């Protein structure tokens, strides 16, 4: 049975946050100056093949500034569009649990102590969640709403090796169990359009996520950006871009596969125009989002339609 999510056919993040906090809540994306074990040689160098030089934090604050300065700068920009609301302190760039716990505590607390912050979002890797960090996250979850974002991308270990993800599916599952044991919500990132992946591969990842008691999901289209290892694969002819209509169809099918309590945080990602090599249609974000809404209505699809408790 279709639910009413504020006029949408899926459980959007905007709807979830308004229900939870009673008003508009928006993200303040921060760069805390961390690195990544997949870049510094601990696991590998160069990072995941699709990851930009800013560690997927291209729209985050300036890492040369303090957390407070970044917060104030981005808040001022946001307030031009939304005059009223609360904030999520979003540690976005690189791996945001990859530092000594005392350093993490200092930066997390500086963020959550900003006026109006009601939530803390941490983007990280599943192999960077030692117990002392989990203790800190659990402690902070008693002060503000906390969620952790894990980059799954795909459940196909062959694809994971190809993109230099640096960990196996079993590592992701261990991290999921650790976070669930602390009652910390998990948001998972998936990517459509990875080299050699079929439609069935992509939907298998969605089906997996739908049955893991994950609180939220982010759908991304694979972007090819300048100065990433993926460029070499593209130049060798190992990468074919998804067409816009293919992507829209995949997203609509995926939405129908999700349980109705899962929050859809994102339906397509962003890439800086000046760095993007392709697919160029991805720059038309609002056109894509509107097309998804139309396709859901046209096909009479809605979140939960295809979901079954049996995986």
Concise account of the structure shown:
This protein is α/β, with parallel strands linked by helices.
Please explain how this structure is put together.
The chain has 311 residues and is α/β, with parallel strands linked by helices. The chain contains ten helices and nine strands. It has helices at 13-21, 67-78, 101-112, 131-140, 157-162, 169-181, 199-210, 230-235, 244-257, 285-298; strands at residues 25-30, 86-91, 117-124, 145-153, 185-192, 216-221, 224-225, 263-266, 276-278. Strands 1-2-3-4-5-6-8 form a seven-stranded parallel sheet, sandwiched between helices. The protein has a two-stranded antiparallel ribbon with strand order 7-9. β1 (25-30), α2 (67-78) and β2 form a beta-alpha-beta unit. The longest helix has 14 residues, at 244-257. The radius of gyration is 19 Å and the shape is globular. It starts with 12 loop residues before the first helix and ends in a 13-residue tail after the last helix.
């Amino acid at each position: 049975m279709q639910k009413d999510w504020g006029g949408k056919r899926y459980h959007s993040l905007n709807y979830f946050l308004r229900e939870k906090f009673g008003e508009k809540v928006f993200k303040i994306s921060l760069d805390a100056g961390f690195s990544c074990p997949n870049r510094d040689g601990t696991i590998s160098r160069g990072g995941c093949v699709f990851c930009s030089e800013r560690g997927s934090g291209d729209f985050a604050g300036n890492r040369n500034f303090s957390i407070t300065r970044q917060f104030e700068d981005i808040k001022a920009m946001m307030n031009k569009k939304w005059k009223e609301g609360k904030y999520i302190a979003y540690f976005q760039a690189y791996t945001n649990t990859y530092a000594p716990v005392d350093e993490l505590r200092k930066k997390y607390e500086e963020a959550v102590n900003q006026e109006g912050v009601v939530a803390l979002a941490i983007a990280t890797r599943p192999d960077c969640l030692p117990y002392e960090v989990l203790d800190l996250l659990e402690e902070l979850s008693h002060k503000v709403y906390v969620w952790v974002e894990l980059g799954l991308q795909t459940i196909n270990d062959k694809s994971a090796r190809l993109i230099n993800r640096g960990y196996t599916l079993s590592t992701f599952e261990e991290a999921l169990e650790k976070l669930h044991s602390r009652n910390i919500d998990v948001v998972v990132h998936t990517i459509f359009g990875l080299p050699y992946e079929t439609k069935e591969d992509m939907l298998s990842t969605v089906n997996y996520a739908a049955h893991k008691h994950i609180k939220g999901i982010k759908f991304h289209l694979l972007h090819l950006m300048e100065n990433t290892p993926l460029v070499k694969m593209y130049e060798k002819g190992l990468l074919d871009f998804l067409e816009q209509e293919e992507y829209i169809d995949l997203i609509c099918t995926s939405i129908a596969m999700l349980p109705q309590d899962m929050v859809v945080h994102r339906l397509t990602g962003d890439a800086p125009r000046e760095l993007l090599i392709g697919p160029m249609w991805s720059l038309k974000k609002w056109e894509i989002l509107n097309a998804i809404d139309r396709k859901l209505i046209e096909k009479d699809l809605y979140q939960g339609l295809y979901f079954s408790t049996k995986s």
